[in-house]
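During the reporting period the student researcher (J.K.) took over the structure-prediction task from the postdoctoral fellow and processed the backlog of single-chain submissions. One of the processed entries is reproduced below for the supervisory committee.
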Amino acid sequence: MISRGSCGEVRQALAVYVLGAIEPADRTLVDRHLGDCAGCREELAGFAPLPALLRKVPLQEAAALVDDDARGSPPSDQPSQPALGRMLVQAGRRHRRDLRTHAAAAGAVGLLAGAGLFAAWHAARQIHLGGIPPA
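J.K. obtained the following structure tokens:
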């Protein structure tokens, strides 16, 4: 629960806010604070990828992480901090792997396009210089 709406309180609530799991009264305080505080808006922008990253963690893996932490402790409707941390680390690894894969694919497409353009330029140059008779 946010009491005063200070930057410290709001920043602690931003991850819950961006996931849409914040209490309505707290949402109102955060919304009001974000309207006036550029620093907290910037902090919120850093949390923007969080929902997409969490969606990349398969449900079975997330449930297993929560179950591992819940053993020996009373049931909870929210993942513990260690489980959430591990989920975020795994999602970050997947995200970086996907970025590397996409970058490699884009590089390969660029090389193929460059080779094609070079071949076309070379053929046009040969025709222009009279090396290959026109059809």
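The committee noted the following: Residues 108 and 114 are 10 Å apart (CA to CA).
J.K. will present the remaining backlog at the next meeting.
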